[in-house]
Amino acid sequence: MTLLQQLPEVIEQIGRDIKSLAVVLGSGRPDKPETTGGKIKGNEPNGTIYESSDGANVGAWKWQKRNGKWMVTDGDTGLVNAVTKNLKPSAYIKLRRQGNLVSCHMGGLSWGLFGYLGKTEKGYSPRQAGRIDVISQGGIPLGFRSDDSCGFSLFDDDTNRAVAGVYVGGVGDSNFMRFTPYHADPKIKGNEAIPDIGPKNLRPPAMMWTTSDPWPDRI
Fold it and tell me: What stretches of the chain adopt beta strand conformation (E)?
């Protein structure tokens, strides 16, 4: 039998496969059946796909049931403002979840620069010697928490020199973020390494981490 002769049978089989694939269309999110207007009954088999017409208002557009649990397969929260402290006025930290990846964005100052407060500036709030908390313990919200603690650096926009370390505490370490300023003299550490007036010409790297959190309920 030639390939051309087999084509109708192949097309018919593809049609059967498509029909056998359960796709449910509705509003809300299937992990909260009460939001779906009765579309989700709770007895859907593994492999069932749920396409949300409104993304549950949190950017969760497509779901699939796997091992008895609903997982987001196509989702994007957009940029979400984190609750911060010790930043220069107008500076921000924003989080964005796409799938199981979280990206962290910093900016808000002129030309998209970023900065944090020094130890003599109004509003500065110390916690540990030589370290500056910018998102409090427990402040990285559920849905955006890092599976593992991780570190990055902030760079001077003029020299491209690393001027501070960034520590992201994961689910095993309080879900927070802090900066550790670097002093030009490596022998100077602790509070002496924190500048009196913090920098305002910083560039962050691309910062991303994985999360196993459920999709956030609100953004």
Answer: 23-26, 49-52, 60-66, 69-75, 80-81, 92-98, 101-107, 132-135, 150-156, 162-168, 177-181, 202-203, 207-210
How does pLDDT run along the chain (219 residues), one tens digit per residue?
Answer: 555 556 666 556 555 554 455 899 999 999 999 999 999 999 999 999 999 999 999 999 999 999 999 999 999 999 999 999 999 999 999 999 999 999 999 999 999 999 999 999 999 999 999 999 999 999 999 999 999 999 999 999 999 999 999 999 999 999 999 999 999 998 999 999 999 999 999 999 999 999 999 999 999
Residues 105 and 69 both lie in one domain: no
**Could you tell me the residue range of the domain that residue 202 belongs to?**
80-210
Q: Which of 74, 95, 121 is the last residue of a domain?
A: 74
Residues 79, 95: contact at Cβ < 8 Å?
Answer: yes
Work out how many domains the chain is built from and give that number.
2
- Are 186 and 121 a contacting pair, CB within 8 Å? no
| Shared domain check, 154 and 105 | yes
Q: What is the pTM of this model?
A: 0.88
